[in-house]
Specification:
With about 160 residues, the protein is an alpha+beta fold. Helix content is about 45%, strand content about 15%. The strands form 2 sheets. It has a 3-stranded antiparallel beta sheet with strand order 1-5-4, sandwiched between helices. A two-stranded antiparallel sheet has the order 2-3. InterPro entries: DNA/RNA_pol_sf, RT_dom.
């Protein structure tokens, strides 16, 4: 499922990618205003059904560019859904089933969180900040003015609220 990352424009795979994006930003004489923020408790606040919907949309849109290993989009979605039903973890010697959100350590969790956030942050990207990028739940935005940054910040707050 990591193939989906390439269809999320704001996704950063690592620190070097972030530094490259920063180097590519052209700063005019008025400068830039920037902010970083964290999506609070992203994994536990991801709606599994909305994450699956976001994945489904990307799979449908880009199915010819993806290797689904002989599976159809529907079969892939069924497998993803089954995996999310098995959110079992061990704590203090007892097993528990997580009924809300993504389980930390689950191999699918980062992909689902990134794809989920791509749908949530879409209104912010429509504001066309000079730079917006994200590594899972750590976001960075740069705008030419404080008022534009405030507007993007408000969109980011709305996105964070939607994720809760």
């Amino acid at each position: 499922m990591v193939q989906l990352f390439k269809f999320v424009p704001s996704h950063l795979p690592n620190t070097n990618a972030f530094l490259e994006k920063l180097r590519s930003v052209r700063v005019d004489e008025d400068g830039l205003v920037f902010e970083s923020f964290d999506v609070t408790a992203l994994y536990t606040n991801v709606s599994n059904s909305e994450a699956l919907q976001a994945v489904h949309e990307i799979l449908l849109e880009h199915q010819t560019d993806l290797n689904l290993y002989g599976l159809s989009v529907g079969q892939t979605m069924s497998l993803l859904s089954e995996c999310l039903m098995c959110n079992v973890f061990k704590w203090a010697g007892q097993y528990f089933k997580q009924i809300r959100g993504l389980a930390m350590g689950q191999r699918l969790a980062p992909v689902l969180a990134v794809v989920f956030m791509s749908k949530i942050e879409a209104p912010l990207l429509l504001r066309h900040p000079i730079l917006y990028c994200r590594y899972i739940d750590d976001c960075f935005v740069a705008c030419p003015t404080q008022s534009e940054l405030d507007t993007c910040s408000d969109e980011g707050d709305n996105a964070e609220t939607l994720a809760e």
